[in-house]
């Protein structure tokens, strides 16, 4: 984490040192923009999504102990809220600045991963309304697909 912060700081200092008289900022080159986008947007968003989706199996196991236990249902509902918050934050993050051309395909793949996870989230919300177990199974499949897509997106960042 410290190396990551140091690299971001160094990149920021390098960008600031480019300020010329008249406060004009020389633009970063494509490689620098790409690295900043990967470090500040892509990787943190992808990591957050994968982390929250990986918790699904444990959350489901906990809930299955007693589907009518108010505390377990409340904990599961909190998890559903966490998924929603993570997906919203990630989607907003990917829209917060222009995507470097070399990362277009990877970011598109991540947007698709977010869409799949959002569909899974909708299934979890439906389950919370009617306790139909089919929704849990569908959510699991959609979360698995989302995780696979995010893995493919990561691979695309390495092939560019």
What features would you describe in this structure?
The chain is an all-alpha fold and 160 residues long. 81% of the residues lie in helices and 0% in strands. The protein has helices at residues 2-17, 30-54, 56-64, 70-94, 104-130, 133-159. The longest helix has 27 residues, at 104-130. It contains 6 helices and no strands. Residues 18-23 have low confidence and may be disordered.
List keywords for this structure.
6 helices, 81% helix, mainly alpha, 160 residues
- Measured between the Cα atoms of the first and last residue, the distance is 24 Å
Helix/sheet category: mainly alpha
| Shape descriptor | elongated
Query: What are the secondary-structure elements, in order, as H or E?
Result: HHHHHH
Number of helices: 6
Low-confidence stretches: 18-23
Number of strands: 0
Mean pLDDT comes to 88
Fraction in beta strands: under 5%
Major sheet size, sense and barrel closure: none
What integer value in Å does the Rg equal?
A: 19 Å
- Helix fraction? over 70%
Topology, please?
Blueprint: H1 2-17, H2 30-54, H3 56-64, H4 70-94, H5 104-130, H6 133-159
Helix pairs in contact: 2-4, 2-5, 2-6, 3-4, 4-5, 5-6
In short:
This protein has 160 residues and is mostly helical. The chain contains 6 helices and no strands.
